[in-house]
Amino acid sequence: MAQSQTLQNGASSRSETQQADTATQGTPSRSNGINQQANSKPGQRDAPSRDDSATNTEHKLSGAELKKKQKAEKAARRAQAKAGEPEAGPGGGNATLNAQGQGEGPKKSKQSQQEQRAQGKPGQDSRIQHKSSGSTASSAPRPVALRRRPSQSGGASKEPKKSDKEVGLFRHLYGQPRRYSIEGASKEVHPAVLALGLQMSSYVVCGSNARCVAMLLAFKSAILAYTTPPSTSLARHLTSHYLSPQIEYLKSCRPISISMGNAIRWLKDYIIKIDPSVPDSEAKASICSTIDTFIRERITVADTAIAATASSKIRDGDVVLTYAKSSIVQQTLLTAHAAGTRFRVIVVDSKPLFEGKNLARHLAHSGLNVTYSLVSAAAHAVRDATKVFLGAHAMMSNGRLYSRVGTAIVAMLAHERDIPVIVCCESLKFTDRVALDSIVTNEVAPPDELLLSAEPAMAPGQSSQAGHASIARWKDVPNLQLLNVLYDVTPAEYIKMVVTEYGSLPPSSVPVVHRISTERDVRV
């Protein structure tokens, strides 16, 4: 009886337990109901539809999944921007994601809509909500920054190239622009050489003899300030490492003349022959003393001898015509005037330098009768001349005269009228080069030097014509070029004689005199 009672109690307890489990499974808990109400949007009615609640539960994404999706969208946008493809419309993500989502159909669109609603729920993490809002804002259509290709069609406002303003026949003479400042100069260049270079480029120091003398004096100052580095000799280091930067700087300011080149070769030849055992102080003193001797013998004394010889060619009543300004011609005319010879001088000049103005002014102050004329009136001025005295930049080995541009015109006009043309030139200006014309070898100066400082005054009632630009703006005018060469070549048949420190000789004797003077320099 006791056993049956025990069995009844166990059965009843099992039945009570099963009933409790059944009630638990069939009745939703209060906590679940509260969570569902919290996850719903504020002010939104509960959706009674079973399908909608099932869809929300099935397609709701977690924070990690949203973050992964945002990274994929960002990477796709970067790839799209690099490829230059247009972005998708306002309907959503990029073209790549849309292409991937086309197979999912309406299910994918419902999922994306519910994701957007889920991103705005207040129950989510604030960090996830911030990233979601950024992704939504970034999904808006934005213009893709594409690179602009340069226009291939030539515009009318295209500026003329620099080469278009260079004369093709003289294009080989256009080099680096002339230096007008010490900016970028080597630190090895001496201050005296720096100052000389600027003076040469601005024509403060002008003329072959003046430039040569000024260069040697500047080199003299530089040599006095020179100190030989240890473990080397003055003869080797001075020429290659110290004088070379000085010479290159002068070349950048203006091309060196023939006389300057001969002087540089003589100076280098003298320095390399110095005995390395000689102390630096004695070697520098010897070099400076030799430079002074060179200037005195090859230029100063030579000019005196040439002036004495050439002045004897002038007779009373002569009309001497000269072109531009030459220091040796000026000294010749003053020597003849000091000797009591009465004669008249015609100075023919040309722009842009107008060197003849200084010559005419100096001769007039010395008491000579001077007539000043431009080269455009040279044909008229030559009619009254009885002799023509010309200076020289260099005498070429074939007997031709290399001098200031315009000299050949004056010599040609004098030759046509059988007027003797006398050239005064030191042997330092002789060279073994041969010149057939003034195209292969010349110096091209800046074209702007040809322009006047002001526009010419117009006559009353005269107006400028439309379409004609001012010459001052020649760089903006197409098909307009300016050429400013400084030298020309005079044929040897136009020259009667060449007066040097060795005497008067014909142009054909130039190579002989050049060889004699070079051998004398070697012996010195």
UniProtKB/TrEMBL annotation:
Cell compartments where the protein resides: Cytoplasm, Cytosol
GO cellular component: cytosol
Ranges annotated as biased composition (Polar residues): 1-42
GO terms for MF: translation initiation factor activity
Biased composition (Basic and acidic residues): 43-76, 158-169
Highest taxon listed in the record's lineage: Eukaryota
Keywords annotated in UniProt: Cytoplasm, Initiation factor, Protein biosynthesis
UniProt cross-references to InterPro entries, sorted A to Z: IF-2B-related, IF_2B-like_C, NagB/RpiA_transferase-like
Region Disordered: start-end pairs: 1-169
Family per similarity comment: Belongs to the eIF-2B alpha/beta/delta subunits family.
Quaternary structure and interacting proteins, as annotated: Component of the translation initiation factor 2B (eIF2B) complex which is a heterodecamer of two sets of five different subunits: alpha, beta, gamma, delta and epsilon. Subunits alpha, beta and delta comprise a regulatory subcomplex and subunits epsilon and gamma comprise a catalytic subcomplex. Within the complex, the hexameric regulatory complex resides at the center, with the two heterodimeric catalytic subcomplexes bound on opposite sides.
The protein's name in its UniProt record: Translation initiation factor eIF2B subunit delta
Organism: Cryomyces minteri
Lineage, broadest ranks: Eukaryota, Fungi, Dikarya, Ascomycota, Pezizomycotina
